[in-house]
Specification:
369 residues, Rossmann fold, 2 domains, five-stranded parallel sheet, seven-stranded parallel sheet, 12 helices
């Protein structure tokens, strides 16, 4: 063991995925002195910023929040990254394993990293990495799917309750404006309870499964799920009822989006779909902004086709496109924070630790892409 060559690892993290914390968790998860096989070098990038003031022309990203919305958003095989696109250039010489969160791993970075054999990305989707170049160079890639599912599920339910029970609206008045408002006891302004309501889940992956289990105690009338990539048996096993897309639109009091964004799912909910919503539902989007036509949502809210909206993501449009929406009293909106929790960080680090252990032992990976 003493004479064995060390596996050189760079952990490129930030103020969320702290590289020192990630390293300590990896070492703690190692067994039989396996951690001695690795040598770690840490890089910490200044992400996220405390606050970003949005101007009308600022393009709001639909995915990961960058530190500079006015900077370069994609290039050389990388997108949905934060900071300088060149940040990792020249920093991977002699490195065999890269563990990275949201920094750009461009084609140039990969081509210059002659010793790189493995990338472990602390995200579910490696959009900040030039995957095509990595594959061409024989660099293997592992990710951390499902690490945010509990956090997003809890955030979705919490935001839904903040809307239905007037928590967000009343809190803004009391804390932000210093107004004590008894108006929420008027029948026309009262909140609603979830008991007896029908929830529709569009997309039924890790997050939707957890939402289904968490909401069992709320005595909903039914939880319907539409996902063309899951069998009816799988959906039933997780406690939901299989349904078609039209059935979700027609039967549900609450509709929540959890599908992946692709060209076929872009603007999955638009004018046509709003016209099919029979029960004036609450619409929730904690997935990707591109799934929802936001101009159509504004119109639907105005004419009462939907009764409210919970939004954690937005599309790749100027902030001016959302200013009217964000002022509506029946909208709860957050800046893409649903997946953020301390437990998510620990979960991601533990998943990467398992992959590094398998790499050192020559065993198959759990989540190779």
């Amino acid at each position: 063991m003493k004479d064995e060559k060390k596996i050189e690892v760079v952990i490129a993290g930030d103020d969320y995925m702290d590289p020192d914390l990630i390293k300590n968790i990896i070492i703690q998860r190692m067994e039989d002195n396996l951690a001695d096989r690795f040598r770690f070098r840490l890089i910490k990038f200044p992400y996220p910023e405390e606050r970003i003031t949005l101007r009308p022309e600022t393009v709001v990203p639909s995915g990961m929040s960058w530190t500079d919305f006015d900077g370069v958003l994609k290039g050389d095989g990388a997108e949905e990254f934060y900071g300088d696109i060149h940040a990792l250039e020249g920093k991977l010489e002699g490195v065999e394993v890269l563990v990275v969160h949201g920094a750009a791993v461009t084609g140039k970075v990969l081509q210059d990293a002659k010793e790189l054999k493995l990338i472990g990305v602390l995200r579910g989707g490696p959009k900040n990495i030039d995957v095509a170049t990595a594959r061409k160079l024989g660099i293997r890639l592992v990710n951390t799917p499902g690490k945010t599912s509990r956090a997003v599920a809890e955030s979705m339910i919490g935001s839904l309750l903040a809307l239905t029970r007037n928590i967000a609206r009343a809190s803004r008045q009391l804390q932000g404006e210093g107004i004590w408002s008894p108006i929420y006891y008027r029948y026309s302004e009262c909140g609603i309870e979830l008991e007896g309501k029908t929830l529709g889940l569009i997309g039924f992956g890790h997050i939707a499964e957890k939402i289904t289990r968490m909401l069992k105690g709320f005595d909903l009338s039914a939880i319907l799920a539409y996902d063309p990539f899951r069998s009816p048996e799988e959906i039933v096993k997780q406690g939901a009822q299989p349904a078609s897309f039209p059935e979700i639109l027609e039967q549900c009091d609450i509709i929540s989006l959890h599908a992946r964004l692709s060209e076929s799912s872009r603007n999955l909910i638009s004018v046509k779909e709003f016209n099919c919503m029979k029960k004036k539902p609450i619409l929730i989007n904690t997935a990707r902004g591109g799934l929802l036509d936001y101009s159509a949502l504004i119109s639907a809210l105005k004419i009462g086709q939907v009764s409210g909206a919970v939004l954690d993501v937005f599309g790749d449009e100027p902030f001016s496109a959302y200013q009217e929406l964000l002022k509506m009293k029946n909208v709860v909106a957050t800046p893409h924070i649903a997946g953020g929790s301390r437990e998510t960080v620990h979960r991601a680090a533990e998943m990467i630790a398992e992959e590094l252990k398998r790499y050192a032992l020559g065993q198959p990976f759990v989540n190779e892409m």
